[in-house]
Amino acid sequence: MADFYKSELLIAGVETKAQGGEYFDVLAPATEQVIGKAARAGAADVDLAVAAARKGFASWSAMAPKEREAILLRAAEIIASTGEQRYLDLLMDESGSVVNKARYEIHYTVDLLRTAAGEVRRLYGDTFPNDNPARISMVFREPLGVVGIVSPYNAPLALLAKMTAFPLAAGNSVVIKPSEETPLIAVAFAKLLVEAGVPADAVNVLTGFGQECGAPLVTHPDVDAIALTGSTATGQAIGASAMQQMKRVQLELGGKSALVVLKDFDPVEAANIAVQGMFNHAGQICMANSRIVVEAPVYDAFCAAMKTACENLKIGEQRDTESVYGPLINRRAVEKVEGHLQDALDRGASLLTGGKVKNGLVFEPTVLLEPPRDSTAWRDESFGPMTSIVKAADFDEAIVLANDSDYGLSAGVLTHNIQLGFKAAKAIRSGAVHIGMHAFQSNAMAPVGGLGLSGMGRSGGHYSTEEFTELKWISVELGQ
């Protein structure tokens, strides 16, 4: 752990003190101790950052595609060669990541930037026929302008890179408001983009709190779109506020993802897959399979294997490459998991394993059996290392249980029967369904997003660049 971090705002490429002159503490989840301070932005700082971004939009959007492509590729290569040196300690210190998860974020960020660079050349337009043969109709795809980005704490480098790189690839400028839990890495990443050649005023960072700088960013008249990855409650508030001014919004929100285990799949193998899909980064993953539906013939064997797999997990040691996860982000996160757990137990669920805080903010891998269908453990996102197992009498009931959610982000179906796998994938209401895999899958080109309380819009590949462009119809009369 570094001795101490300190971070200012980044406005027009310059490290800038907040107008109010205040800072807030940054805590390490591993110790709950202060490891740094970040500038505390307010509405006046939002005005400065947005004004810079508006200026940066003019220069960045006017660049030739080959120039934007080269800059994003340069950013990818800088991270590929220096990423661990720049980010490894910071990811572990600030977000509580274990070393393998931190390395994954760094490598995935390289992939995201390279993918975004490729999308610069895929901003396709269109033509369509007219009844008047002397008229030509064309459709152009143009950047929106200034995109406000509200990024989360659970993958503070990789998700920020995803949320930033694709709007930039489409020609937009950005103002980033990272989670107050992980402000330091956002400033570090933005500085790297400027180092790679993005115009200094096209990438700006405001560190601080939602009501003080996030809300003014969302409602600022010179911000054209908002992208949020975060909780459903935050997304509902931001989406409603942004839509009052008819801003474009892309919301990747919470999940209560189902993993369906059908009777033909080996229950021990299924349990190992379920553990991988649930306990990465202590379950602080929106696609984690926090609801597991198991067909009756393999239910008992699966539960036994799940208990063994969970109790064999190594947790808590951040720098140990065999450690699966470390601490939750803060004390409130621990209390939320504890509350969901107790609610389910009080109402008749049973505890298969786990249920306790091991030390500090490290919560044991926890598995509930048969929670009531209206319990918070079944219906709400716990965002911690706790999942629930329920029994399904047959395939049809398994699909009903998988769909028993107001969320619809991702799902997994474990079967070797490809017909049943596809039948399940078509029937499950979710933005993604993975056959033979758990629900937590990542691909830089995939359209990640969900249904219902899981948000609106899609992120990844050309789906992202299309979210942050506008279509313009231009026609030409040739007959006169």
TrEMBL record:
<feature type="active site">
    <location>
        <position position="252"/>
    </location>
</feature>
<dbReference type="InterPro" id="IPR016160">
    <property type="entry name" value="Ald_DH_CS_CYS"/>
</dbReference>
<dbReference type="InterPro" id="IPR016161">
    <property type="entry name" value="Ald_DH/histidinol_DH"/>
</dbReference>
<keyword id="KW-0560">Oxidoreductase</keyword>
<protein>
    <submittedName>
        <fullName>Aldehyde dehydrogenase (NAD+)</fullName>
        <ecNumber>1.2.1.3</ecNumber>
    </submittedName>
</protein>
<dbReference type="InterPro" id="IPR029510">
    <property type="entry name" value="Ald_DH_CS_GLU"/>
</dbReference>
<feature type="domain" description="Aldehyde dehydrogenase">
    <location>
        <begin position="18"/>
        <end position="474"/>
    </location>
</feature>
<dbReference type="InterPro" id="IPR016162">
    <property type="entry name" value="Ald_DH_N"/>
</dbReference>
<dbReference type="GO" id="GO:0004029">
    <property type="term" value="F:aldehyde dehydrogenase (NAD+) activity"/>
</dbReference>
<keyword id="KW-0520">NAD</keyword>
<dbReference type="InterPro" id="IPR015590">
    <property type="entry name" value="Aldehyde_DH_dom"/>
</dbReference>
<dbReference type="InterPro" id="IPR016163">
    <property type="entry name" value="Ald_DH_C"/>
</dbReference>
<dbReference type="Pfam" id="PF00171">
    <property type="entry name" value="Aldedh"/>
</dbReference>
<comment type="similarity">
    <text>Belongs to the aldehyde dehydrogenase family.</text>
</comment>
